[in-house]
Write a structure and sequence with these properties.
Domain EF-hand: 503-538
InterPro entries: EF-hand-dom_pair (IPR011992), EF_Hand_1_Ca_BS (IPR018247), EF_hand_dom (IPR002048), Ion_trans_dom (IPR005821), VGCC_Ca_Na (IPR043203), Volt_channel_dom_sf (IPR027359)
Structural class: alpha+beta
Strand order of the largest sheet: 4-3-2-1-7-6-5
Transmembrane segments: 231-254, 274-295, 307-333, 353-382, 431-455
Strand content: 5-15%
Protein name: EF-hand domain-containing protein
Keywords: Calcium, Coiled coil, Membrane, Transmembrane, Transmembrane helix
Radius of gyration: 39 Å
Length: 664
């Protein structure tokens, strides 16, 4: 045991240190938490209006600090400020969680279903104990301050754990590294459980999991896979592979043109070089397929990509063609080599988008073609009835259908049913009506409907892909704009996580609860900076003091101590959200103007005008109201002064000239 506890002083490995310095570790942690949230079922915890029963485990503890922690939490300024603002504490822990699983929320519950171990614990903040939950996942230590598991207030990645120390008794601490998510914060904790939930057992379990996580991170196989994936997905590698595919296709074209394997061919000398070139391309493509598979994290991830499966089929078909080259009558397998050029669709994004658009429009086109086939079948039945005894081309249904198909393919009408009957060359009315209706209904209308449906669905799919890329570019632009307005990331995230005013208020209260780590009821710049860094936003919000001044309206929302109360924080978030919507509408007006009608820009400009001048109009109305109130009060004061002067017997009126003090 002493050796294990002695290892608690060991610093994290050099690889972890370099990853934190490069800034990759934080992004990996947030991405991992978001993926875990999307995979696992939602944790539904419903409490009653009485908050007392959620602290039963703390009340039943033999430690007196556990009971005192409940009192400290319920009597904290944070709890009082939220209840004073009429915030439903029970509903607060579901704030900004209205995404329904489609958009990752910025605040998540404690991941109990992913945890290796969890228990209640006491968290010491500024000399006071507060109730909390702790759970350990394979790569993170998570906390829920306040004792409600629906809001994870803090988390410490295992690679950021610098030191674990015993503070005597059941008290212990977790010290984090500088420059990480928690900026070197030390978590002072106290275990209130027994046996496996004791402080000693918690420290041992965390250290063991920490060592295991370090070993997994230093796994050379994972590093090699990451490097292979980076090399394979680089633009240079993809360009080389595309050039090889085109070269292989040109070799197949030359082989088909010269036919060196044909007996007596004058190009017989090219047979051996072309065969060697074919073997070379097959080996290269097989190696490229293996290289691509090694770059994926697992075989399941590789096979879940349909383009990778297409690569496997093409390479397998190439090997079949190579093995059957000496078999008599196996020329059909050799023709498989020509489909290798289709692998360009995997390598070139533009071709891939076109193919995806064609496949998207395939099903609606089949529906229109089905209507066309039914109409042709009806004409074939009528043809059998009208012309079955006059020509063998309409003797049966299949013959009649084939004859009509040839007409639809712009071939000649059957010679046994001429439109002009010899010897007088009179017009056959039955044939005329039959052919006329078939041409008008099938060839002029239904075939054009099939083509129109195909083009319409293709255009819709292409526009959808174009809009998706435009939105992606706009998102990249928003991320770049975060250097000017750091809360743009947060505003973008929360703008889709609420539907009503009540949900927005609960979300703001939950965010304030998460940021106020000392439960003082006020937020300082340091608390906001550290708290925003812990939100599950990509990229991470790195708040600077200049940004803090901007979002607080140059400090006008701050009190004398430079902090924000809950009411001021609510006004700050509403102001920032309004600014974000205004900027977003402005950006939207510049995205693909050619795809918009004339009405949409007018509507967007109107909404933008309302957002811009709503606050100014409200300010003018409030100023006018204040002037009216001030004028009314001045009149009352003047009347009171005049009445007071008359009451003491002063005959001088309020508007009479003052008397000369030197006279008399």
């Amino acid at each position: 045991m002493s050796e294990v506890l002695g290892s608690l002083e060991v610093e994290r490995s050099f690889q972890r240190s370099s990853s934190i310095k490069k800034g990759h570790a934080l992004d990996l942690t947030i991405t991992s938490l978001n993926r875990s949230l999307s995979r696992r079922p939602r944790v539904v915890v419903d409490y009653k209006e009485d908050d007392g029963h959620r602290y039963d485990e703390f009340k039943n503890s033999k430690d007196p600090d556990a009971v005192q922690s409940i009192k400290n939490h319920l009597e904290s300024r944070l709890y009082k400020s939220l209840t004073k603002s009429h915030v439903d504490i029970n509903a607060m822990h579901g704030g900004f969680d209205q995404s329904g699983g489609y958009i990752p929320p910025i605040m998540i519950p404690l991941p109990l279903d992913l945890s290796i171990k969890s228990s209640t614990i006491l968290m010491r903040i500024e000399g006071k104990y507060f109730p909390a939950w702790i759970c350990m996942t394979p790569d993170t230590i998570c906390f829920a301050r306040g004792g409600d598991v629906r809001t994870m207030t803090d988390y410490v990645p295992l690679y950021e754990v610098k030191q674990i120390m015993s503070l005597g008794g059941e008290a212990w601490s977790i010290e984090t590294v500088e420059g990480g998510i928690n900026s070197g914060r030390t978590f002072e904790l106290k275990s209130i459980g027994e046996f496996e939930d004791s402080s000693t057992q918690w420290m041992v379990d965390i250290e063991q999991q920490r060592m295991k996580d370090a070993e997994d991170a230093a796994n050379p196989v994972r590093k090699t896979r990451r490097r292979i994936k980076e090399l394979y997905t680089s633009a240079t590698s993809q360009a080389v592979i595309s050039a090889l595919i085109l070269g292989n296709f040109l070799a197949v074209v030359v082989d088909s043109q010269c036919r060196p394997d044909k007996p007596g061919s004058k190009f017989a000398y090219m047979s051996a070089p072309l065969y060697a070139l074919d073997v070379f391309f097959i080996i290269i493509f097989a190696a490229e397929l293996v290289f691509n598979a090694l770059g994926h994290s697992s075989a399941r991830a590789f096979l879940s990509n349909p383009w990778c499966v297409f690569d496997i089929l093409v390479v397998a078909a190439s090997f079949v063609a190579l093995c059957t080259v000496t078999i008599q009558g196996a020329n059909a397998f050799r023709s498989i080599r020509a489909i290798r050029v289709l692998r360009l669709m995997v390598k070139m994004k533009q071709l891939r988008h076109i193919v995806q658009a064609v496949f998207t429009s395939f099903v609606p086109s089949l529906q229109a073609m089905f209507v066309c086939v039914i109409a042709m079948a009806v004409f074939a039945v009528f043809g059998v009835q009208f012309f079955g005894t006059r020509t063998p081309d309409f003797a049966t249904f299949l013959r009649a259908f084939w004859s009509l198909f040839k007409v639809m393919a712009f071939q000649d009408w059957t010679d046994d049913l001429p439109l002009l009957q010899p010897p007088d060359y009179e017009v056959d009315q039955t044939v005329l009506v039959y052919i006329g209706l078939f041409v008008i209904l099938i060839m002029w209308i239904l075939l054009n409907v099939v083509v129109a449906v195909l083009l319409d669905r293709y255009v819709v799919a292409h526009q959808r892909e174009t809009h998706r890329r435009a939105i992606k570019l706009m998102h990249i632009a928003n991320v770049r704009n975060c250097t000017q307005f750091k809360l743009e990331i947060l505003m973008t995230a929360i703008s889709t996580l609420f539907d009503t005013e009540e949900e927005f208020k609960n979300g703001i209260a939950r965010l304030f609860f998460l940021l106020d780590n000392n439960e003082s009821g006020y937020l300082s710049f340091q608390e906001m900076q550290a708290g925003f860094r812990k939100l599950l936003c990509e990229p991470t919000i790195e708040l600077e003091f200049a940004d803090f001044q901007e979002v607080t309206n140059n400090g006008r929302l701050l009190d004398a101590r430079g902090t924000l109360s809950f009411e001021s924080f609510d006004r700050m978030m509403r102001r920032a959200l309004k600014l974000r919507h205004t900027k977003h509408i402005t950006d939207l007006l510049h995205v693909r103007r050619q795809c918009m009608g004339k009405e949409l820009p007018i509507v967007l400009h109107t909404i933008r005008h309302m957002l811009l001048f709503q606050n100014n109009e409200g300010t003018h109305r409030r100023a006018e109201k204040r002037l009216e109130n001030l004028s009314r009060r001045m009149k009352k004061l003047a009347s009171a002064v005049v009445g007071s002067g008359r009451g003491v017997g002063n005959p001088r009126r309020f508007d009479s000239p003052p008397c000369n003090p030197q006279a008399g």
